[in-house]
Fold this sequence. Notes:
GO terms for molecular function: 23S rRNA (adenine(1618)-N(6))-methyltransferase activity. Its EC number is 2.1.1.181. This protein has helices at about 25-35, 55-70, 85-100, 125-135, 145-155, 160-165, 200-215, 235, 240-255, 275-285, 310-320; strands at about 40-45, 50, 115-120, 135-140, 165-170, 185-190, 260-270, 290-295, 300-305. By secondary structure, the chain is an alpha/beta fold. It has a single domain (about 70-320), classed as Rossmann fold, CATH 3.40.50.
Amino acid sequence: MIPTKSPVLRRDKGLHPRNRHRQGYDFVALAKQYPPLKSHLLTTAYGQLSINFSQPQAVKALNAALLKQHYGIVGWDIPAGYLCPPVPGREDYLHHLADLLADGHKIPQGQQTVGLDIGTGANGIYPLLGSAIYGWQFVGSDIDAQALQHLQHIIDRNSQAAKLIRLRHQPQSQHIFDAVIQSEDHFDFTMCNPPFHRSAAEARQGSQRKLHNLATNRGEKVPHKVSLNFGGQANELWCDGGEAGFLRRMIAESQHYAAQVLWFTSLISKSENLPLCYKLLEQQQVATVKTLPMTQGNKQTRILAWSYLNDKARQQWRRSKPRPD
């Protein structure tokens, strides 16, 4: 039995001002919108209605409820073991991108803005959110063909997404933009949440820290045994060289598409990787580099953005960019 009124999770004022989850979650409304969430609801030691964030099924049900209630996305699901991303943080990335593209002017809306999501996964969270919030077009790429096949089923069930999102398979595991960006493409931005661990063991340690922080913040017992509560396949969570190695490859490849992309961007989980990125971008004589801070609760992260075009050239690029079909 779900109470008709309940306290929501504490407000997160670290989120972007336009983020619709700054006031927390209304679990009662979410459960009404998505009934499978009901069985995962619990009351914390602080008297707040919540879920057990250490349980993958609970996190997945919460995501499905959020996507249905706030974005009108139905039929969202992921296969067992795949990454289940927290929605508020993913929405934040998109809002910061919108501010970057606006560059002090009007925030771009509609399908004239086209983005490339690197490693879109089976969840497709960035294209789904970006097309729902801003009406942007997206290309989502991934090396996992099965993940893309699953995501296509979700897209097909949502008319807005079906009009705005296309998927491309990356056949070369060591490449990022190569074999994905085609000669006729012109992207306003690329985005990526790179795998930031070097191994499965390191990923488990990171999940343990995450669960410890979540439990402590909610007055819950810290679990002794840990699973990857947000899931994740190997290519989603770790790679050779970890985050630094992935960023090194991304920056190196980006120069080949300098005239086809207005802004290259990526999340940077580890601040110690920034000096390396700055050095590599300087070596490639990138015209503009920006670091956009992001905060969610106690978590600090940032978006690294770079463009091979200066301010004047970016304005010209926007005017002359071919219009999407």
